[in-house]
Design a protein that fits this description.
This protein is an all-alpha fold. Helices cover 78% and strands 0% of the residues. The protein has one domain (7-73).
Length: 74
Amino acid sequence: MEVTLSPEQEAQLQRIARRTGRNTETLAQEAIDHLLEHEERFIEAVEKGLASLDRGEFISHQEVKRRIESLLES
């Protein structure tokens, strides 16, 4: 697999690698790892939410609004 970066992205990657004492390949791999972990967690959360909806487990918009207002008043 090959990934093409814009000149700005490549410069930023080099700058961060230099400042953190890592090489660009390591930094790029770490960035990809973080992104993939984040995407997996996001997809799992969405699937969990959709499953809750399928089971009829949800609260109304008005209840969400009431809870937020209650939190803001605290």
